[in-house]
Amino acid sequence: MGGASTIGKHVRHALEHYVALADALMRPGLPVRYDDYKLKAKLEPVALQPKKALDVIGQIVGLLEDAAELSGPEERAEMFGNRIRVVMLTASRHVSMESTMKRELHFVFHHAVHHDSAMRTIASQLGLKSKENFGVAPGTIYFRKLKTRIKAQFRAKRSKELFAKTKKSVKWNYSMYSILS
Asked: Would the pTM count as exceeding 0.90?
C-alpha cells in the first residue's frame, strides 16, 4: 500500500511498533522486531478501517493496564526493567541490540507522537482541527509552559521595577507624587 501518506497509514505504522513490543512483552525471549513485514501485512487493514485501529488500540491499552496492575513493584520492574533484544533493519542487514521493555515503551510512545504530528498536518490540510497539543512532544509542551511562566515572572518583575523607577522620579514633586499615590 504505497503512495500518498494518509492518517490511516500513520496510525497503522505507530501501532506496528506497539504491537511488536506487546508481542515481546507477552512472549519473553522473543526479540522486538519493529521492521517485521509480516506484522505490517497483518495490520494493513488498520490503515483503511478505523474500527480495526480502535480494536488494536483497545488491546494494547488493556495489556498495558494489566501490566500496570501487577501485584508489586518487583513484578513491574521484572517485566519492564528486564533486558530484551531489539532487532532493527538497516540498509544492509539486521542489527541486534540490548534494551529494556521500559526504554522501548518510551521509544514507541515518542515514535507515535512523531506520527501524531504528521497526522495533525494531514488533518489540517483537510481543514480538520486537532486538539491543542496533539502531535507535540511532552518535552516541547513542558518547555512551552516553562517559557510562558518565565515570561510572566519577567513581566511581573519588570512591571515592579518600572513602577519603582516612576515612583522615585516623581518624589521630587510632592504634589505630583500625592496625585499618583
From this structure: no
